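Quick one: C-alpha cells for this chain, please?
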Amino acid sequence: MEIVEVLLALMAACVVLAVLARLAGVPYAVVLILGGIALCFIPGLPRITLDPDIALTFFLPPLLVGSAYRTDWRAFRRNLQPILLLALGCVAFTAFAIGALARLLIPDIPWAAAIALGAILAPPDAVAASAVLQRLKLPPRLVTVLEGESLVNDASALVIYRFAVAAVAAGSVSPLDAAGSFLLVGLGGIAVGLASGWAAVWLILRLKDPLLEVTLTFLAAFASYLLAEALGISGVLAAVTAGIMVGQAQHRFTARTRQEARSVWNFVEFVLTSLIFILIGLQLKDILTRLEGRGVWELIGLGVLVSLALIASRFVWIFPAMWLPRQLRSVARHDPMPPASIPNMIVLSWAGMRGVVSLAAAIALPAAFPERDIIVFLAFCAILATLVVQGTTLEWVIRRVGLNMPAHANGIDMAEAKARHAAATAALAAVQARAADVLYGPIAADLLPEFQDRANHLQRVTKGGGAAAAERAARRAVRLEALAAAREALRACQQDKDLPEEMLARLRQEYDYEENRLRQAMG
C-alpha cells in the first residue's frame, strides 16, 4: 500500500503547488520542480526514485500523443523546414557543442560519453514547452514551430544518444553506419506510427461506444511506442505519428466522443505532467549523494557553465539557420530579402526548456558508464536552469520583443469570425432548403429566425467595431443568465419525487455543455 499512499500524496502536492503557481503567476512546471526539490529534503519522507523505463514508457507516450492529437497538420507541414532545422539541425549542433565543452571541462571523459551528455541535453522537452506555452498568447506560426520541434527532436536526440552509448561499449561506431541507422530508426518509427494510427482510427469508427473509443486512443499511444521500441526503432516518432493520425481523423468521430476525449486527455495530461515535474525535483538528493566526493564549488561551476552553454548554443544555431534560408530564397527569386524576424528568433532561442526526456536518458545510462554521476547531475542542472530561468522569464521576453498578442475586442478574431459566419450561413441554407418540404416545412419555418439571427450577428462581427463587441457581450450575458435560471428550475424539480435524478442529471449536463460552448466561443 505504500506506493499507493505515496502516489496520492504526490498528486495532492501537485494540486497545492499548481494553485500556488497560479497565484504567483508563473508556469506551474517551475513551481512543481522547485516543490519537488523542497520535498526531497524533508526528514522522514520515503525515498522516491525515478525509474527511467517508467519515465520513458509510462509518461512519454501519452504526453506525446496528447500534444500530437492537437497538432494542426496543415500548419505543421507548412512550417516543416524551420521545424526540421530545429528538431534535427539544432539538436545535432547542440549535442556536439556540449560534447566539446564537456571534454574541455572534464578531461577524463571519453568523446563518446561527452557526446552522450550533449545528446541528453540537446532536445527541448515537449512536456516542458506545453507547460509554459499554454499560459502565453503567441503568434500561431511561432507556436506551431515550437510545438512541432518538441514533438520531433526527442527522436533525433535519442538516436544520437543510443549511438554514443554503443560507441562507449564497443570503442567506436562508424559515422556511415550511424547515418544509415538514423534513417532506418526514423523511417521505421514513422511507419509503425502510421500503422498504429490507422488501426486505431479504423476501430474507433466501428466501436460506437465513446468510453471504448477514448480508451482506444490511450492504447494507441502505448501500442505505437512499445511496438516501435521492441523493433529497435524510434518509439517517439511512432507515438507522434499515431497521435497526428488520430487527431486528423477526429472530425469523423461522434461529437460525444470528441467531447469526452478532450476532457479525459486534459485530466490525464495534467496529472502526468505534474507528477513528472515533481518527480524530477525529488531526484536532487540522490544525485547529490552520489557526488559527495566532488567539491561543491566545482559542481556549481560545472552546472552553471554547461547550462549557460546550452542556452547560448540555441542562439548560435537559430539566428544563422533561420536567416540563411530566407537569404537564399530571396536571391533565387531576385527579390529584396524579406526582413528577418528578430523577435521570432529571440523567442525561439529563449524557449528551450528541458525536461523529462533529458533526465530519464541520463538516469538510463549503464552503471559503469564513464562519469555517469556527473552526467546525471549536469542533466538535472540544465533542466532546473532552463525551466526556472527561461520558463519564468519567457513571458517577459515575449512582451519586450513585442510578440504578445492582445485580446480581441470582440472576444474573437476576424479569421474565426469569418469561419463561424461561413458555418452559420451553411446551416441557414440547410434549414431554408427544408422550408419547402411538405413534412418539414412548418418546423423549418419556426427555426428560420434563430438561424437567420445567428448568421446576421456573425456577419456584423466580421465587420468589427464597438457595436459588434457590445452586442456580443450582451448576447453572452443574456444566454448565461437564461442557463442559470434553467439550472435553478431543475434544482427546484428535485423536490418532485416523480422526476428521476438520473434524468435531471442528464438535463444539467446538457446545460453544462451549452455553457462551456458559450464561454469557449465567445471569450
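The two ends are 45 Å apart (CA to CA).
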